[in-house]
Design brief:
Helix content is about 35%, strand content about 15%. It is of the alpha+beta class and about 600 residues long. The radius of gyration is 22 Å and the shape is globular. It starts with 6 loop residues before the first helix and ends with a strand.
Amino acid sequence: MRAALPGALLLLTSLLLTGCEEAEMGPAATAPAVPHSGISFPDGWRFSADDEPVRAERGAVSTTDYYASRVGLDILEQGGTAMDAAIAVSFALAVVNPSAGNIGGGGFMVTRTADGETSALDYREMAPLAAHRDMYLDEEGELTDASVLGHLAAGVPGTVMGMWRAHERYGTLPWEALVQPAIDLAEGFEVRERLARSLRGSEESLRIYDTTREIFLPGDAPPEVGDTFRQPDLARTLTRIRDDGPDGFYRGETADYIVAEMERGGGIITHEDLERYDALWRDPVTFSYRGYTVTSMPPSSSGGPTMALMAHILEDYDLTGMGWQSEEMIHVMAEAWKRAYSDRNQVLADTDFVDVPLEEMVSREYAQRRGADIDMDRATPSEQIGPGLEVGEPTETTHYSIVDEAGNAVAVTTTINSGYGSKVTVAGAGFLLNNEMDDFAAKPGFPNQFGLVQGEQNAIEPGKRMLSAMSPTVVTNPDGELFFVTGTPGGSTIITTVFQTIVNVVDFGMSVSEAVNAPRVHHQHLPDQLYWENGGLRSEVVEGLEARGHTLQQRGGTSGDVQAIMVLSDGSLAAHSDPRLGGTALGY
Ligand code: DON
């Protein structure tokens, strides 16, 4: 029963990401300090406003994992483009960051080439053909936990096809060279603190399925720092992908393993599902915010349109004048977010299946109407905020950002949804399957694991993509030049986290490290709660917001794991990996 996995609890447990590892400084670490905004963080906040980002003259990579960043940097140093590096990093993360990096999941990529062409690649998982609207309800019509745990939770994986389509369009190095580093890692790498901590933290759930336990708890215990971690089945699967491209995954031996795993565990993904899967190039959502141009993901992600609506509402307010993290600023942001998430949750969904008023949602005119009833003195209760748009019919993920010497930028967010996905490893193939089906409205009007209350538009249909919040984003400055590449995991908080990094750099002139390290707040319409990171708000601001009618909810840990790169005014790069999870930014 769903009751065993209460949404709010899962939201918090999956987002309470703690600990940090030293970020590694690139060779350009001795470059002059980047300009900081001079804004100070609240006294109780655990990350510094004074961190220096990694400096680079030619190219930079920021990912959640040291090995993955090294793979990306090696590809750049060999003369590969940001896209080549992005493909290699994706496969590397599938090996070294199994809680979220994947070949059994999906994701989104937003890219801007040096000549200004932008594109968005949707390699989101799809509902299997045998999926149906009520597949996660029991006889009483109550939600079960099958959308979160086990074989039935998995959507048809998209990552391998996504990387292949990206390679076809933009790749310059041979495919084999991009997959090989991951194979080498799968044959064995030395465990570092980040992975050891992650596996330790998930030990209980990694025991549920034997195939998962045998790989991730070798010798029946999580590997320790310094151990060599080997994944021979995964190395063989990656070798088939290296040699046969997408056929090495969607057909032949790997596909046979996936289908056999489904039959063993009561899942429904078939050979037909795998063979018909494709990744799709879509028109990115592009909007302007105070003269900067933001390019982000369209549906099947909600990230781009939701951020566009927030940005357009907030452009009418002088956030800079209000002061960073002032009561006024947080109040008006929360009011804008509630309205934007209400639309997101009720209206957005896979545009290949349902009509979505996308143009209206990203238009300035609509934002003006939508924001018109914001009261600066009082929070509007969420129950009084219905969706403003009409439609025809009634915490594990990972992000990485890469910029190369030519100025090509790639932002990728990829996931198997919860940490270690459905917890099911495909026997013989050595990779975990996603539990992305939970991103659908399994029972419209009822919360999913992130507490998101979504509507009919996002109900399950065969072949449909479940609505995502993932928001890989590229920002250009008022002169049209590449300025900022950003993104994060964090389930429903992804959109507000990415949005706050943009506000931090655009409205408050923060450096990349300040913008990433700064404490964050979050509101998603329902539940009607304004979340804040422990130590991240001054007590007088908390009291002031409560007096305006907000219900504040403190998060014990931290949320998000932003990987960001900024282009400085002299054209050099500053990269910073979020200390919340302890990733690594590298440059050269
Ligand atoms: O696509 C989405 O919006 C979710 N599946 C993302 C999940 C996530 O970020 C979990 N990580 N902390």
